[in-house]
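Sync notes, pocket subgroup
Present: LS, DG
LS reminded everyone that the earlier model was apo-only. Rerun requested with flavin-adenine dinucleotide included. Inputs:
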Amino acid sequence: MASYDYDIGILGGGAAGLTVASGAARLGAKTLLIEKEKNLGGDCLHYGCVPSKTLIRSAEVYHLVKNAGRFGLPAAAAEPVDFRAIAARIRSVIEVIQRHDSEERFCGLGAKVEFGEAAFEDEHAVRLNGKRVSAKNWVIATGSSAAIPPVPGLRETSYLTNRDLYSFDKLPESMVILGAGPIAAEMAQAFCRLGTRVAVVQRGGQILSNEDKDMADPVMNALTREGVSFYLNAAILSARNAGNGKEVEIKKDDGRIETLRAETLLVALGREANLQGLNLEGIDIPFDGKGLNLEARLRTVHKHIYGAGDVTGSFQFTHAAGYEGSIVVSNAVFHLPRKADYTFMPWCTYTQPELASIGMNEKRAKAAGVSYSVWTEEFKDNDRSLAEGEEIGRIKMILNEKEKPIGIQILGLRAGDLLGEWAAALNGGVRLSALAAAVHPYPTLGEINKKVAGAWLAEKIFSERIKKGLRFFFQLKGRACGTEDGGRKG
Ligand SMILES: Cc1cc2nc3c(=O)[nH]c(=O)nc-3n(C[C@H](O)[C@H](O)[C@H](O)COP(=O)(O)OP(=O)(O)OC[C@H]3O[C@@H](n4cnc5c(N)ncnc54)[C@H](O)[C@@H]3O)c2cc1C
C-alpha cells in the first residue's frame, strides 16, 4: 500500500480550508494546512466579510449621527471622517478574530500549518518551499480574487479591488464603482455615508441582479436618496489614469457616451477562482475562471482531490465555504458519502436595508419552471421596525403548488438575522402552521416571520367553509360591523 506524509493536505487557509483542517484533525487524520499569505483566515477575515462589515458599521453610526434629528435628538456636528481611525478599528477587529484562526490554535487541534505557495507535482504530492509533500487526499481551497474583465485600458489603470479598500490614509473624495453586486452595493453605501462621492456603473437594468427586481430596486432607491449615482444599462468602454484621478468612459442606454471622473476606481465585477499556478493542468484537473468542475461530493476527476469554497464557483460566501468544507470532511475522512445540497443556501447583502435570501425567489422559480404563489408582509406594519425608524422593507414568502415554502426573501432592517429562523424551518421541514403558531416576543422584527406564515394560515382558518361550519354547528350570528376586507396574497 502506498504511504504518504499526511492523510489529508489542504491548499488554502481561508473559510473552507480551516473548516476541513479543524474537522479532519479533530477526527484524528494527520492533517497539513498550507497557506500562501503570512496569516490564516483568507479573504473573509482580511479583505472581505470582516473588514467590510466593520466599515459598514462605522459608516452607519456616522450616518445616524448626521441624521440625529430624525430620532428627536439635537442635531450633532459631524466632523469629517479621518479614515486612519476607521482603518485602525478595522485592524483591531481583524486582530481579535485572527486569534481564532491562528497557527497555534490549529496546531492545538492537531493540524500542521505550513506557509508558502504550493503547486501539484503529481496527483498525491505538492512542491512546497522546495520540498515534496505527499498526502492521501488533497483539498483545493484557494479562494477567489476580483475578476478583471478585458475593458480597454483597465489593466493599465491603477484601480482598486476589495484588497485595497480598508487601509486608506484618507477617505477618497470620489469613487467610481464598476459593477453592482453585493460588494459594490455595500461599499457604495458605506463610502457614500462617510462622505465619498460615489457613482456605480452597471451593465444590466438592475443592481443585485440575482435578486428579484422588486426587492433590489428599493435598495438602489435607498442608496440614491443617500447620494449614490447609478448608471444602469451602461457599457464600460474604457478606463484610464487621468492626472491624480481616473476616468471611465461609458455608453449609456440612450446611446450617449459619458466620461465619469473620480479619485478612485473600484472594480467589483465578479470573482475569479484562484486556480492558476497550482499546476492543475499537469495533473489533468479541468477548471476555468469560474472554478473547478466538481461532482456532487465535491470531488475532481481524481476522487481523492476535492474542491471547497469559492473555487467551486457556486455560492461564494463564507458560510457556503464552511458547509462545503464539512462535506469534504464527511467524504474524505469519515468515509460517509455526502453530496453538497444548495437548495437552502442563504445569503445577505448588508446594505441598509439589508436584502437576504434563501431558496427560490421569483426569478429562480420562473427559470426552474416551478408554479408558485407569493405571500408578503411589509416592515411598515411591524411595530419594532417603526420604533427603530425604519419603514422600508418587505418579506416575500414563495410557496410551491403544494403550498410548501420553497424560498424567502427579506428586505429590511436586520434581514440577514431574520433569515436564520427560516434557515432552520426550511432545512428542518417545519410546517408553516408551526411557525405561525410559535409565540414570538413583542416587539421584535422577527414577528414579521410569524406574520407572513400567519397570513397563509389565516386564509385556511378564516375561510368561508370554516365559517359556514361554525355558523351551522354553533349558530354564530356573523359580522357585527363593516364589510369583509381582503387577504394578503401577493
Ligand atoms: C469585500 C467582500 C465582502 C464579503 N462579504 C461577505 C459576507 O459578508 N458574507 C459572506 O458569507 N461572504 C462574504 N464574502 C465572500 C467570502 O469572503 C468568501 O466566500 C470566502 O472567503 C471564501 O472562502 P475560501 O476559503 O473559499 O477562500 P478564502 O477565504 O479566500 O481563502 C483562500 C486562501 O487560500 C490561499 N491561497 C491561494 N492560493 C494558494 C496557494 N497556491 N497555496 C496556498 N494557499 C493559497 C489564500 O491566500 C487564502 O488565504 C465577501 C467577499 C468580499 C471580497
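DG: The two ends are 63 Å apart (CA to CA).
LS: The first helix runs from residue 15 to 26.
Action: DG to write up.
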